[in-house]
Structures are given as structure tokens and as C-alpha cells.
């Protein structure tokens, strides 16, 4: 039988889709990289069905591109060699929640907001917040993190166990539900950040956290970027467990002021969130305020109530939307890098100087406690010259971050957008190790070809 | 040239050792498994020298057994196939400390206490405390954890980057010093818990933590094990950031009372430590005490001062020593397992009943916040029947833990002592993935043969 017949036999006819719009959508992410449509989109509903699809693809030597919510940014889901997009959106069951063990097991297609709605009434929450309403499987695959990682960690620290389908179509559970283990190689973390190139993630067991009794927020503007970063370094050195500590540069503050009708001072600004008992959040905030005052803070603005707290974080989460509104019609060319925090102020300052010289506009936001920052370069998608200048700026930014003992991507991943930088960052021998692992686990190269390890497309 | 000549050419004659005592010592760990001496012990002083040694071993197709401090428990360092023990104790330099970035880079042979002495004056500390004065390289290799993991995490959460020598004798840095990254496969975590089977760890970059302003301790005894475990579950559900929360069973309490001349109530007991500002530690302790009272606590004893705090934790760290003193001349047959905390009380209760039926004596201590517990079974090493009963008890314990969705080892590792349980825990497909990775990175099987993935020795 042909591939299509086999896929239909593995699922049902109505879960094997070839409509042009569906194909196009499944090859298009939220980044600026050229999309590439798959030949089929399929919708398995559980691990067993997904394994059947993988076995069909293996039989037909057909590429497999795992698809979560399509919110990735570096071309992760582009079907560069065609093949079958496995859409996990119908794998949307929350399979098990244990408040005693503070863990939850979900199918890979469950999204962050869906999980949040389930957890909230139980008095627990899942901490990793990349902004987008990504699927949990996708968040594992890209090694996602976000605004709360400074306190609660990234996906790497919050995934306990995975169920994956291997290139042979076998089903593997990577680990037990024990909180820790030294029993053999860490298959779980190998899949975190593997971007669908080593197998298909079908179920995820995650740590959850008790919902804090009190959450408060503050915004504080500084005369210079250095002051803001030095304040953060000192906050961390004092072990103040800030839940979020986000940097917005002057351009980004201007953008959110305009878009959300706020009146924040246009200067490098930290947005803070505190979690704990009321006494704890009050003490944390006072301690941070005292530290900020020694770093020339211009003002320490409290979110007086829950509505103001939400408004502040709504503005932070709307950073990208507000940035795009600075230049209607422009596309956001987003990129991220991450450096040791002691190098962060210098890296951002040089990047801003480079940006000014390039004539481009790009607000900067950062998960500053992690040393991670993002640029959303606003480009006219029809202006080839401008796009090239944006690419060149990104290239210099990444090289600068690597030069500062940092990484070409703190959380967006490699996809096919950052292939060219992986050897520069890790060296040829480390890349050879990664390639050896890829070949060992996916000898025919069926899983998400052209991603993470290349080859780079033309 | 022969192997010995080549090793001497790679180092110096006085750093290639063949004395019988040295060989025996390097094949003998602190566990109960039969030792096996290597043919040579070598002492490289840096990564480059270590790489030279690995290249010599490769040329001679000679097994390589990495050696840290020799404190492992499951036969990790036994040279089952002979070969060269690479002792890292002369790789004892602390290479770089950044208090701003809260990280430190050390050579693999630096020990935990040596690091602590360096960090203390800087106002920071390294959190992972397995008890023994292990080397940091060894702690990475076994995926160590210990009493503080409930708050600060295991080695997995605290290793930022490694330098390793591959089976080809190449030098690879697994990652930049950025706090997080999504740039390619997680080679760092692949080496955490790899027990020297994938390559030789020569340098380690670790997260450090600010030293808490205040540290306080308490001990509380409960009428039953269930009460103690349920208290811990509720403490964690309230997000009280206890730094340590250790369980000692009645047998262990009796042992420490005798050995350290204490007068603790002989009952299942939690030892607690609190880190923070004075106000925080006081609030945490009060909250825990209130929770403990709802779980029938027999008494909540404060360590009134620093001397009492140290005495309590000295007793906890001397648990094994005090256990052995219960039966002079006996050897401790130590084992560990880890289960989801909701299954912990049942798993320990069944283990105690099994223990009673077996006629053996074994105090139980546990990192109860992680669901991890240890047995030190006291056996007469010359009594083959007793040793066999201990092995059978261990076998049933591990199967019980796996049946409770747990792991055959929470922190001691596999070595060659727990080989037989790995397939039971992970299933044949997961083991096949681990074997494929091993073959990909060490195709000739030179690194620590017979460990983690077997084959099991006769």
C-alpha cells in the first residue's frame, strides 16, 4: 500500500489531512524563517496510535516532523524534506495528577493554559511560562523556559519523565516517577531540547508547585542598564527568591506605554514578581527596594493590588505585540541569546550600539536573572536589504554572546535558524558527539531532518 | 612500546603506579561488592595529560576506570576487566570562581570539603552533600545528591558544564557558562550519572548558592512512620523551603543515641534544617511545628544554638558509623531506593516487616523530601548465609521500589551492584537506547567496562 493508505489504516481517514491550508499552517511557525509544508498532517490520539504512525513512516522512509502548537521561532516545524507532520493537538488528556507527589502526567498536546486551568483548583501550578500557549510536548522539545525560571527552573529542572516513540516505533518510558534517580543514562534530559530529532514525545510527567498564598509585583526604572543588571546580581547574591525579574529596555517601555496606555518612565526597567506568604513577599520586596536604592533606582512602583499586578505582567507578556505596533506592517525578527550575568550589561550595551549603527529598531527584553535576552527586530518583510541587515545583526549578536561565554540560544532552540552557530558554540568534537547520538537513535534520519545538527539548508 | 612505557611517556614514571597496595586500594570502594584491582594507577594533573592517557589506553585497547575519592558504594571503581585506573586526586585545582555569576569551575579531583573551604570566605556554598568527602568529578559521575536536595536539587540541577575526554582522546566542553541554553543536545546531563562509561570527566562548572544568614535545626519524633511522612508531604505542599528534612527510623535513632551519647526519643524522627534570614528560618520552623502537631508529633526539639545544630547533623552524618557500632565486626551492606513520596510510607513499612522476618538488622535513614531511603544491613562478612539473606532482602527491596513507580537507586548509582535491576526498571527498549548511546560514544567499550549496562559479571 502507499503511504496515505497506510496512514489511514493506522488512524482514520479524517485524521490524515492533505488540505493545502492545513499543510501550510503546519509548516509555518511564529518566527521569520521561510516555512516548508509537510505532505501529510496526521492526528494521533494516544501513544499507541503515534507509534503506529511512526512505524508507517519508517516503512516508507518518510520524514516525521512532530508538531505541538506551532509557536516555536527558529523554524523547528518546517518540513524541510516534506513528510508527515504529527500534530499532537488531539493528544490533549491530563492523565494523572498527584498533589501529594507534586507531579502531573499529560499527553504531549496539552497546552500550558489548559494545564493551568486543571491545576488551579487543586492549589498547585506548573511554573514554566514561555509566554506563548505552547504545548507541553513542544516545551520539552525546545527546552523552554521563560519569566519564572530564575526561581523555579527551566523545563530541564521540571520534567520528571517522558514517554517517547523511538525511530523503530517502540514505546519507551524514560524514567520512573521517583523525584530523583541514578539508575542509568538520563534519557529524559536527552530528549529535553532535542527538537523532535531523536523521537516523538507523547507523554510528559512534570513537577508542579504549590500556589503561593501571596503574589505581588513592582516595577523599577534605572538611569542606565548597568544599574539594573547590577541590582539583579545583588538581589540574587542575597538569595532573595524573586519569582520573576524581567528587564525591559527603554525602547520596549516606550512600546508598552503606547500600546497598553501605561505611563511607565521610559528607561531600563525591571519588572518584579514576588511569591510567598504575605509576610515573605513583603520582606522580599522591601529587601529588593533597599538594594535597588543603592543602584540609583529612579523609582520603585508597587502594584497596589491584583489588578495592577496583572496589568504590569499583561504588558510584559504583550511586549512582542506592542513592539510590532511600533511599526505597523513590520514583521518581528525575533532572536535570543544568553550569557553569564556578569557579562550581560556589556553584551546588551554593545548590542544596542550595534543596533543603533544598523538603523534598525529592536526592543530588548530579558529574563535577566538567567542572563537571557531577546531582540524583536522590526523588519519590512518585503525589503530584502532590511532583512539582510537584520540577519547580519543577529549573526553579530550571537557571535558576541558566544564570545562572552554564552549560548546562541537560551530558550528558543536551534531549529534550522541557528544551525550555523552550533559548531561555533560547541566546537567540532562536541558536535560530533551530538551527531553520533543522533545516528545511534535515529539511524535513518527520519525525525525532523535538517534541524539542530543540520545540514544547513541553502 | 608497551603500555607501561607509553603511560610513563604520557606522564612521568612517578605518576604511573603498580604497587600492590595502590592497585588494591583503587579497585576497592566503600560498598560490599567484591573489589577488583586495576593493572596500573595513573595520576594526571590536567585535562591535557588525562587526554594523553586516554589515547595511550585506546592504542593498547586497555580498559579505563576513572577514580575520584573511592567513596562510591556499588562497585563503580572495580576494574572488572583490569586496565588503567585514572586517579584524579592530583587534578585538585579550583580554576575559577565567580560570585557574580554564582558559579565555580574545578578540576574533577577537587573534593567537596576542599571546595567548601575555598567558598566559605566568599559567602557562597556548594549545596550537594552526599555525606562522604567525595570528589566533584565522582559526584557528577554517580549523579550524587544527599540531604539538601529537597531544597537545592541534585548534581543534575547544579552542574552547568563539564570538560570531558572522549573515547578518541578528544577534549570536549559540554556547554557554555550561560545559566541556561537550548543549543543542541544536553551532553552535560548525559554525563551526569554515566559513571565513567561514556568518557572521563576532567573539569566541572557548578552552581553555587549564597550562604544563608541564619541556619537553624530541629528534631521531631512521631509515634509512627506514616505520621512523619505525612508531615513531610504537608510541609512540601505548603512550599516551606526546608533545607534538609531527614528521616531516621527507630533503629537508627537508637544507634545514634548510643554512639553519640544523645537522648533522642526512640521513634521515627525527622531532622530538619532551615536556611534564610533569621525571620525566615523562625517562620519556617513555626510553620513546620504547626503542621507536625496535626500529625501527632511527640515533641519538637529545637537546636537552641549552633553547637546543638552541629551535634544533631553530626549524628545524622554519623548514621552509618553508629549503625555499624550496633554490631561490632559487622560490615554495612548499604543500598538505596527512591519512590514517589505518596508511596514512601508503605514502601518503608513493608521493607521493615520484610527486614524483621529476615532476622537481619538494618537501620533506615531517608532523604524523605525526595522519597529516597537507605538501608545499612549489618552483616558478618564471613557468614555466607547471612550475606545471601542480605542480597535477597535487597533484591526484594528494589523490586518493591520499582513496583511503587520508583527507582532501584536514588543516588548511589548502578556500578555493577545493581546491573540486574536496570532492565526491570526501564524495560528492554530504554536499555537498548542506553546501549546505543554507549556504543556511539565508546565503540570499543574501553570506559569502565561492566558498569551501568553490564554485562553482569559471574
The gist of it:
Two copies of one chain form a homodimer. Chain A has 458 residues and is of the alpha+beta class. Chain A has helices spanning 3-10, 20-26, 47-59, 112-119, 136-142, 149-152, 155-158, 187-191, 225-237, 250-260, 278-293, 306-317, 319-325, 344-358, 384-403, 419-426, 428-441; strands at residues 16-17, 40-42, 64-67, 84-87, 94-98, 103-107, 124-125, 159-165, 171-173, 200-207, 209-210, 214-221, 244-248, 269-276, 299-302, 331-338, 364-367, 372-379.
Question: Can you give keywords for this protein?
Answer:
458 residues, Uridine Diphospho-n-acetylenolpyruvylglucosamine Reductase, domain 2, Alpha-Beta Plaits, 17 helices, 18 strands, transit peptide (chains A, B)
Commentary on this structure:
The structure is a homodimer of 458-residue chains. Chain A is of the alpha+beta class and 458 residues long. Chain A folds into four domains: 3-87, Uridine Diphospho-n-acetylenolpyruvylglucosamine Reductase, domain 2 (2-Layer Sandwich); 94-210, Uridine Diphospho-n-acetylenolpyruvylglucosamine Reductase, domain 3 (2-Layer Sandwich); 214-320, Alpha-Beta Plaits (2-Layer Sandwich), CATH 3.30.70.2190; 327-414, Alpha-Beta Plaits. Helix content of chain A is 38%, strand content 20%. Chain A has 17 helices and 18 strands. Chain A has helices at residues 3-10, 20-26, 47-59, 112-119, 136-142, 149-152, 155-158, 187-191, 225-237, 250-260, 278-293, 306-317, 319-325, 344-358, 384-403, 419-426, 428-441; strands at residues 16-17, 40-42, 64-67, 84-87, 94-98, 103-107, 124-125, 159-165, 171-173, 200-207, 209-210, 214-221, 244-248, 269-276, 299-302, 331-338, 364-367, 372-379. Chain A has a seven-stranded antiparallel sheet, sandwiched between helices. Chain A has a five-stranded antiparallel sheet with strand order 5-6-10-8-9. A four-stranded mixed sheet of chain A has the order 1-2-4-3, with helices on both faces. In chain A, a hairpin with a 4-residue loop joins strand 5 (94-98) and strand 6 (103-107). In chain A, helix 16 (419-426) crosses helix 17. Chain A is globular. The relative contact order of chain A is 0.12. Chains A and B meet through strand 9, helix 8, strand 11, helix 9 and helix 11 of A and strand 9, helix 8, strand 11, helix 9 and helix 11 of B. Chains A, B: It is an enzyme of class 1 (oxidoreductase). Chains A, B: One of its GO terms (molecular function) is D-lactate dehydrogenase (cytochrome) activity. Chains A, B: Belongs to the FAD-binding oxidoreductase/transferase type 4 family.
